[in-house]
Design brief:
seven-stranded mixed beta barrel, M1 Pyruvate Kinase, Domain 3, transmembrane, binds 2-acetamido-2-deoxy-beta-D-glucopyranose, pyridoxal phosphate binding, alpha+beta, Pyrv_Knase-like_insert_dom_sf
Length: 334
Amino acid sequence: MSYRGSYTSAAITTAGLAGGAYIAYHLYKEFQKPKLPEQWTQAGTLKNMYAYPIKSCGPVVMNKAECSILGLKSGWLRDRVLMVVDDKMNFITARAYPELLLVHPSVNGSVLTLNHCDLESLSVNLAEVVALQAPKTATVWTVPVPVYDCGWEAAEWFSRLLNRSTTSFRLVYYASQNSRGLRSSTNKIYKFTKNDTGALPDEVPFNLINEASVDELNSRLEDKVTHRNFRPNFVLDGASLKAFDEDNWKFVKIGDNIFEIIKPCTRCILTTIDPETGVRHTKAEPLETLKSYRQIENPEVRKSAGNSPRMGIQMALRSGPGGFVSLNDPVYFA
Ligand SMILES: *[C@@H]1O[C@H](CO)[C@@H](O)[C@H](O)[C@H]1NC(C)=O
Ligand SMILES: *[C@@H]1O[C@H](CO)[C@@H](O)[C@H](O)[C@H]1NC(C)=O
Ligand SMILES: *[C@@H]1O[C@H](CO)[C@@H](O)[C@H](O)[C@H]1NC(C)=O
């Protein structure tokens, strides 16, 4: 990670002279920040944008969104701020419950509506969920997170969807404006800051995929996939882009928003479940093919990633929050 060796030198005005400790503190803070690139190369444009309000459930297509520390946002529509938990308040995902992928949430004002072809739609007013209760603690990847419970109707809806006999599952809503805590193992290799974990995603608040990489993968597959198998937030497309160009980038800029690439996205069996049907591929494709040529080579990184192949990049916001991204925005890399 040599680029992390180049840090900004602190530019500190000492007006007011609050004392050496103050200056030292700010020098320290500045020293922590990676230097943002000044030279950018255009890679293409933003072709698709998605938020997944409920972890492991279907996407909501976005045309314009705000970039927040916790991910894409448009009013109450935010990326991965809800999840389904079991009776021990531990998260569940489509890896074990593929049916979740066929839940298509929509958000209108503060009202979240759950849609699935076999069930009657159900609406939950998130503003009421927030106003009426004190947060409880749930767990995602062993990390405790504060959540609001979305009520018994949503609990019953998901329990019927996944089991149809007992009320074993509940829908919960992330109850913090800050990123969730880091997993203790996370920072052995990658340098996450405390702003880089998002609300409830697996790893980071922003994921980008290059359409040229999906095309290249498809050229090796009998059963074709789409970028939707990889659940990206951003889909990048451009005539000059080659497959896996993104492997060598350090930063990405979309519109005026700058993202640092924290790590490659290492892929699991979720990619082998058809996002339109919820059916698992009998030969575990495209994962098996990806494993044949996209495994991590760096031995230290390989220790934690195992044989999970890389596809797409995991990013965190480095420009200030509140900037907008829109479809067709130019996408740059450095
Ligand atoms: C959104 O909610 C408003 C107010 O309840 C309603 O008038 C409007 O029809 C809803 N829009 C959609 C797309 O459902
Ligand atoms: C449904 O619930 C029953 C009873 O709790 C349990 O034995 C079974 O494993 C559950 N099935 C699924 C798909 O979760
Ligand atoms: C986290 O984000 C907040 C809000 O933008 C910012 O004030 C703070 O400096 C950030 N912290 C780090 C460690 O980047």
